[in-house]
Amino acid sequence: MMNDTRDPRERTPLTPAVFHILLALSDGERHGYGIMQEVAKLTDGQLRLGPGTLYRSIKGMLADGLIEESDQRPDSELDDERRRYYRLTGFGQRVACAEAQRLERLLKMAHSRRLLVHPEVVPAAGWGGE
Amino acid sequence: MSLHPRSVSLGISERVYRWLLMLYPSAFRHEFGPPLVQAFRDGYRDAHRQDGKIGEARLWLAAIEDLVSNAFAEWVLEVLPVLTFNRAPQSPVLYTIIFVVGAIWGLLNHFLDDLLYVIPAVGPFLASDAKFTALAVFAFWLILALAVIWLNTRLRGSTCMAGVTCAMLWGSAFFFFLLYDMYYDWPRIVATGGSVQTVGGFVPAWVAYLVMWLTYSALFSFGGFAVGWFTTYLRGRFLNAVA
């Protein structure tokens, strides 16, 4: 594998879709619909990626070298041969870490400004206040 | 409530979705069409299993919103590299040259008109202004198209530069062409005291003239851009075909 010397911080901040896809792939490779399901699960259904958003993000991430297509299948008998599986690259892993650190710093700042001490003032998400 | 893989509603929905993928640019569709359909099919099955017909309807609404917004964004990305000015060389000298050449060409259109009428063989052919104008415009389009093609074949990464050059040259030429026209016509318009008949008689003649002048400039600038864009598009298609 080629040694990627790019600075991962230059690729941040990430869009929510890209960061969630990286998170979904952080524990192993998945196919497109598997990523959609994992993102919905990670966010308790608050973020549901549509196929278009998913594959447009994947297109950009492939071009940037954040993820790559995998040739391996978990079990060829259980799965459709035509499905495309994706996995994180080393650079993708480092970009995900850099983004997580950036968000952590942001969170600390929000804490220091006492923005996290009154969670009850945050409006309910979604239509009809789910 | 699981959905049979060969269910009629799934089959129809999949076919409609596949057809709607035509909204995407062809390159994206060819690359990601099959996985998009696969993801839609999986989502459709799950939506049906969880909420039946309501789930299917909800999935369709989300799919259409997803499709329209992403197809639009993908088209913007497809066209933007051609239209963007970022990759054009930021050379004031080059732009000045383009502007001056355009200005000279625009002004020459008038003098050329007179000169051509002196030539016996050409004079009768150019008896009417309309013919000459048509010929000049045609020649201009041809010269610009050839210049852009030449730039595209000789210079690497000249896509944007060619488009910008073309637009600027075209716009500059017609700006001066019409400015010169205005210089001659303005005293006549002022002399009439603005009583020249215009649409409905409400608009003063000079306003109508100014609007016409600006419209022409804008239209011809866009025309130049269109030539640049089309030739670079053809070049891209050709390079893709031989790659």
Q: What does it look like?
A:
- The complex is a heterodimer of chains A (130) and B (243).
- With 130 residues, chain A is mainly alpha-helical.
- Chain A has 4 helices and 3 strands.
- Chain A has a 3-stranded antiparallel β-sheet with strand order 1-3-2.
- Chain B has 243 residues and is mostly helical.
- Chain B has helices spanning 8-20, 26-83, 92-118, 129-154, 159-191, 205-242.
- The two termini of chain B are 49 Å apart.
- Chain A binds chain B through residues 31-33, 36, 48, 50-56, 58-59, 80, 82-84, and chain B through 24, 28, 31-32, 34-36, 38-40, 42-43, 62-63, 65-67, 69-71, 73-74.
Overview in brief:
With 130 residues, chain A is mostly helical. Chain A has 4 helices and 3 strands, in the order αβααββα.
Topology:
The complex is a heterodimer of chains A (130) and B (243).
Chain A: H1 16-25, E1 30-31, H2 32-42, H3 51-64, E2 67-70, E3 85-88, H4 90-112
Antiparallel strand pairs in A: 1-3, 2-3
Helix pairs in contact in A: 1-2
Chain B: H1 8-20, H2 26-83, H3 92-118, H4 129-154, H5 159-191, H6 205-242
Helix pairs in contact in B: 1-2, 3-5, 4-5, 4-6, 5-6
- Proportion of residues in extended strands of chain A: 5-15%
The profile of the biggest β sheet of chain B is: none
Largest interface (CB within 8 Å) is between: A-B, 18 and 22 residues
Beta-strand percentage range of chain B: under 5%
* Mean pLDDT across every amino acid position of chain B: 67
Radius of gyration of chain A: 17 Å
Radius of gyration of chain B: 27 Å
**Silhouette of chain B:** elongated
Low-pLDDT runs of chain A: 124-130
Oligomer: heterodimer
Q: Residue ranges of chain B: pLDDT <50 for 5 or more in a row? A: 83-90, 194-199, 239-243
N-to-C order of helices and strands of chain A: HEHHEEH
**How far is it from the N-terminal to the C-terminal residue of chain B, by CA?**
49 Å
Distance between the termini of chain A: 46 Å
Number of contiguous helices of chain B = 6
Structural class given helices, strands, pairing of chain B?
mainly alpha
Task: Work out the helix count of chain A.
Answer: 4
Number of strands of chain B: 0
User: Strand order within the widest sheet of chain A?
Assistant: 1-3-2
- Apparent shape of chain A: globular
Mean pLDDT of chain A: 83
